[in-house]
Design a protein that fits this description.
This protein has 1 helix and 3 strands, in the order βββα. The protein is α+β, with helices and mostly antiparallel strands. Strands 2-1-3 form a 3-stranded antiparallel sheet. The longest helix is centred in the C-terminal third of the chain and has 11 residues. It starts with a strand and ends with a helix.
């Protein structure tokens, strides 16, 4: 199965929804394929920045721990 990293942004609007992309990345999550639901269950913006799964761990302090654990179990 193919995986993709997808950004969660720092700024969240009053409705609880993320504001438009272009803001500071808060956390990198892992999604299956090109989806917008992170492996940890968080729903991300479909237009949020993506990175290939090979970039996982490039920003360790910004990587979702739960997504990382689930991702490693799937690919190991």
């Amino acid at each position: 199965m193919r995986h993709t990293m997808r950004a969660e942004y720092e700024h969240v609007g009053a409705s609880g929804e993320e504001e438009s992309p272009g803001h500071e990345v808060r956390t990198w999550h892992m999604v299956r394929g090109d989806g917008n639901v992170a492996m940890c269950g968080r729903v991300l913006q479909p237009e949020a920045e993506t990175r290939p799964d090979g970039d996982w761990g490039t920003w360790p302090k910004l990587s979702c721990h739960t997504c990382g654990a689930l991702y490693l179990r799937e690919v190991a």
